[in-house]
Design goal:
This protein is mostly beta strands. It has 1 helix and 8 strands; from the N terminus they run E-E-H-E-E-E-E-E-E.
């Protein structure tokens, strides 16, 4: 998820949450970044970024770093609601 289509979105969540433009939560489209933040923290205290695929599915990468680290998951799989949606393309 770091670099594609000749657009560098950064290598960590702190950089990724500044790319593109904010889209209203719930109005995400396939290809948008879905961002989770710590509640009550600084606005840039991100914890996870995933790529929205549509149909409430995301493409994400997270530890452990093995064959299962990159996977398709449910948008609600993290238990807490996502905080922000950013559109980098379009």
């Amino acid at each position: 998820m770091r670099k594609g289509a000749e657009i560098d979105i950064g290598a960590w969540t702190g950089a990724q949450h500044t790319k593109g433009r904010v889209v209203a939560t719930g109005n995400q489209k396939p290809g948008d970044l879905v961002i989770w933040k710590r509640s009550g923290s600084k606005p840039d205290a991100t914890t996870h970024v995933a790529l929205f695929l549509g149909d409430d599915k995301i493409l994400e990468a997270s530890p452990p770093r093995n064959r299962q680290s990159v996977r398709i998951s449910d948008l609600t799989s993290h238990g807490t609601p996502y905080s922000e949606v950013r559109r980098v393309f379009g």
